[in-house]
Write a structure and sequence with these properties.
Keywords: Acyltransferase, Cytoplasm, Fatty acid biosynthesis, Fatty acid metabolism, Lipid biosynthesis, Lipid metabolism, Multifunctional enzyme, Transferase. The protein contains 11 helices and 13 strands. By secondary structure, it is of the alpha/beta class. Bound molecules: oxa(dethia)-CoA. The site of oxa(dethia)-CoA has 20 residues, from helix 2, helix 6 and helix 8.
Length: 333
């Protein structure tokens, strides 16, 4: 289908969902050999939300989606496509996107999941942009939802202090030309895949007594390698997407980075010479919510009135894969 130049793809509405239960650093001190001081100084995280045992990814995704649909002033039946970015689907199949489709009654929508780790929301937006701008679809619902507490080894202090649960959603549709998602830059380096992975539960090592006993259905991470990758890619992915848009770091009004570690964000800000006031941070409250981090942060920044008409929003993420994604949006109120 020919590219339509009379409009751009843009975000029409956002929503998010966070479980109520807070797990503080003090709580973690009672669970593993750690301290509030270590966690805050090494990561910036003070507390995170943890879903109750009965809560599922599709439930959180559905709640976030309902709010985004309401915010966009459309109905579930208007939606043409649902994309859910998650690494913790309810089940291997059917997809979590199909479960959400049924939950919200989006009877006209196609639905699929993407598995891109923490870069999932930005990958989802870039897929949505293609479907909107080539005229295939009018409304695409992009949801990023992760419930990492269910795949966390609560005896591993290297990982259990980092993560939290949450979901964010955005309705992508047509906006006036000159506004909306100006460009994206997504990429992957599969060679680094084993720095952040869950060993069991797939075709390589199906679930068995031994895999459960050895806690192989949990996050395994080489933190230092991911840290090095993250600092580097936050910089390169930002420069690349800004170049594609003909913009410079100083043109950015609000920078919404993946909320993994304040030291990674500080390093990126320093390299890019971005001022602190332009950076949106909520990792102190929620920890790293994987794909949901950027989606929830965008929703919070909007609802807090931190984004005005015409503002340039820069979002950058990195994650399992290894993957990365950056996007620039010119906001249209
Ligand atoms: O979305 C992508 C997901 N992943 C990430 O973004 C992770 C990126 N990596 C990081 O954020 C950091 O590497 C971590 C926060 C995970 C770790 O920080 P670090 O400064 O790289 O610490 P380290 O791994 O070098 O460990 C330093 C020390 C070690 O002790 P020794 O060997 O020096 O005695 C660790 O055993 O800190 C110890 N340590 C802890 N101490 C208290 C590791 N975790 C903890 C903990 N509490 N929770």
């Amino acid at each position: 289908m020919p590219q339509n130049n009379t409009f751009k793809a843009g975000i029409l509405g956002t929503g998010s969902f966070l479980p109520e239960n807070k797990l503080t650093n003090k709580d973690l001190e009672r669970m593993v050999d750690t301290s509030d001081e270590w966690i805050v100084s090494r990561t910036g995280i003070k507390e995170r939300r943890i879903a109750p045992p009965s809560m599922t990814t599709s439930y959180m995704a559905t709640e976030a989606a309902k709010k985004a649909i309401e915010d966009a002033k459309i109905t579930a039946e208007d939606i043409d496509l649902i994309i859910v970015a998650t690494v913790v689907p309810d089940m291997n199949f059917p997809s979590t996107a199909c479960l959400v489709q049924a939950n919200i009654g989006a009877i006209n929508a196609a639905a699929f999941d993407i598995e891109v780790g923490c870069s999932g929301f930005i990958y989802g937006l870039s897929i949505a942009k293609q479907f909107i701008e080539n005229g295939t679809y009018k409304y695409v619902l992009v949801i990023a939802a992760d419930i990492l507490s269910k795949i966390t080894n609560w005896e591993d202090r290297n990982t259990c202090v980092l993560f939290g649960d949450g979901a964010g959603a955005a309705v992508v549709g047509q906006v006036e030309n000159g506004y909306g998602i100006l460009d994206n830059f997504i990429g992957a380096d599969g060679k680094g895949g084993m720095h952040l992975y869950m060993p069991a539960g797939g075709s390589r090592m199906p679930a068995c007594e031994e895999s459960v006993k050895n806690k192989l259905h949990t996050i395994h991470m080489n933190g230092q390698e991911v840290f090095k990758f993250a600092v580097n890619v936050m910089n390169t992915a930002t420069i690349e997407v800004l170049n594609r848009c003909g913009l410079k770091p100083e043109d950015v009004d609000i920078f919404i980075p993946h909320q993994a570690n304040i030291r990674i964000i500080d390093a990126a800000m320093k390299k890019l010479k971005l001022s602190k006031e332009k950076v949106f941070i909520n990792l102190d409250k929620y920890g790293n919510m994987s794909a949901a981090s950027v989606a929830v942060a965008l929703d919070e920044a909007l609802k807090a009135g931190k984004i005005k008409n015409g503002d340039i929003i820069l979002m950058v993420a990195f994650g399992a894969g290894l993957t990365w994604g950056s996007t620039v949006i010119k906001w249209l109120e």
